[in-house]
Amino acid sequence: xxxWRLNGQEDYLSNKTLYKITFPEFWEIAYKDKNAFxxxxxRYAKKHVKETNRGHEYLEGEKIQHFWxxxxxxxxxxxxxxxxxxxxxxxxxxxxxxxxCFQDFQSEFNWQxxxxxxxxxxxxx
Length: 125
What we know:
Elements: H1 10-13, E1 17-23, H2 25-33, H3 36-52, E2 69-71, E3 78-80, E4 85-89, E5 96-98, H4 99-109, E6 112-114, H5 116-120
Parallel strand pairs: 1-6
Antiparallel strand pairs: 1-4, 2-3, 4-5
């Protein structure tokens, strides 16, 4: 039986290491430490403000978090930094998978789970 959530993701998500992220705890640490995740959001926010000349107020303090959200690569559930939710992401933080879809497809996609310390040490973010 086919699952409506499967749409060719095996081409780019098979055999990947994924990293478990729980919000808002992950955002709180990112903001406090100004880690790789925070810097990724900050770069995007500054670029957006520069290109649109709007949203300058969101570059101050924790408001910057509202420039970011992602969707589950399978079911499109939304990940937000200020909403209690658990997602798994690829090392580049480009692909995000909700907890339910992770559980449903982990075996099929042969995913491994890495630590958040490994993820945040990635200077490529």
